[in-house]
Amino acid sequence: MTPALARRLTAEAIGSFFLFAGVIGSGVMAEGLAQGNDALALLANTIATGAVLYVLIAMLGPISGAHFNPAVTLAFALRRELPPRDASLYVAVQLGAGVLGAFAVHLMFDMEILQFSTKARAGIGQSTGEFVATFGLVLTILVLLRTRAEAIPAGVALYITAAYWFTSSTSFANPAITVVRSLSDSFAGIAPADVPGFVLAQLAGTIAATALAGWLVGPPEEAP
Q1: From which residue to which does the signal peptide run (predicted)?
Q2: pLDDT value of residue 222
């Protein structure tokens, strides 16, 4: 039985808040402690992100599906597993709670609450990285959902952990977190002017992965 919409939206809000805070906060902490070693800072940022992602999916997945990501929500909407109205509310909650997560990080680390990133992340290489990162994430979720649903928390967390390192963009793979990271002038930030290129690449990756997953495991009604 599907939980009530209010419970699902609350779960999405909680998950988005802690995931976005985890990504940005661990970046702030890592940059402060790494003393200029970007590789060490990225490693610390990666470990924290993968860990919190596993916990949040395992905890909240049974309630809302643990999307925390408009790309994932779009994939389920395209597969007609989530009504358009619910999908729109999911995205609004993900973005709103994510902004609060960023503001909470700034408050915790005595930073200016409202800020804008100056970190440039532009170019075909970065966009390609985001396409690849999002394609792989959505494909991982949709295929595991039909073949080994119990492995989704670990599968998604491990995929993102790896994609931080094998993609040129360090795998944002999430339109909402891309927008929110533009509001933090920190290690995890992205300049606002570079957000549209990332989001377009993420949406393209989502559509391509959803189409491939439909061929690999079939639409929901045909899945084993």
Answers
A1: none
A2: 52
| Per-residue pLDDT, 219 | 77
Distances (CA, A) of 45 to 24, 94, 145, 170: 8, 21, 27, 10
Residues of the chain with pLDDT under 50: 223-224
φ and ψ of 6, to 5 deg: -60, -40
Are 173 and 69 a contacting pair, CB within 8 Å?
A: yes
Give me 119's structure tokens.
């970190």
Q: Provide the 8-state DSSP code for 120.
A: -
Burial of 150 (0-12, 13-18, 19+ CB in 10 A): exposed
Domain segments of the chain: what residues? Answer: 5-218
CB 91 within 8 A of CB 13: no
Q: Residue 43: count other Cβ atoms within 10 Å of its Cβ.
A: 15
Q: Selecting from 1.20.1080.10, 1.10.287.70, 3.40.50.300, 1.10.520.20, what CATH number does the domain 5-218 have?
A: 1.20.1080.10
The separation between the first and the last C-alpha atoms of the chain, rounded to the nearest angstrom, is 19
66: exposed, middle or buried (Cβ count in 10 Å: 0-12, 13-18, 19+)? buried
For the chain, how big is the Rg over CA atoms in Å? 17
Residue that the structure tokens 């597969």 belong to: 79
User: pLDDT value at position 223?
Assistant: 44
pTM above 0.90, yes or no: yes
**What is the CA angle 136-139-141, rounded to 5?**
110
